[in-house]
Prior knowledge:
The protein is built from 9 helices and no strands. The protein is elongated, with a radius of gyration of 20 Å. By secondary structure, the protein is mostly helical. Helix 3 packs antiparallel against helix 4 and helix 7 (116-124) crosses helix 9. The relative contact order is 0.14.
Amino acid sequence: MLGTAKIEVYIEDFFDSWVNKINSLTLTSAHLPNNLKALYLNQPFLSSGFKQLIIEKSEAKYFDNISSQINNSYFHLTDISKPLPILDAEKIYNAKKYPSPDNIIALFRRVGINNIFHQVNRSAKADLENVLTSFNDIRTSIAHDGIPVGINDRDIIKKLRGIKNLIYHIDKTLFKHINVSIRPSTS
Length: 187
């Protein structure tokens, strides 16, 4: 149970510190992965405006909604000559920090890594998605039914070591990705 909580804290801490660093620098959208720009560009006023246009078929309401926000700093994400708006890290890990394989894949897709498990599996030369699934199965079983029959301390320690290895390779992959992605393209 604590292992899962530690993973969630790692995710929050990593993205909080990364986004704080981004916010403290003078960067443009050229420094960010496209998926991350798309995530932040998805603002409630845009969703509402498109709902009015597509579902309600009201171009007038769409114009009113979007034109009132046309100078919103989130539109700077589409213009590499303008400084980035202040970003909130929680938008990255919101509803995705519980370490299920699906959440981990979705979370890292948000920052431009399309399938984190392809990269960490290659780095570890192991199936770390399976390690996470197995860990979560044991965790769920303990949470709902107590320690399963046939599981002992060594088994739990082995699962925790597998998770430690997963986090090591996620951290390594993230470090490499962020160092490459935050550099503006020269083309």
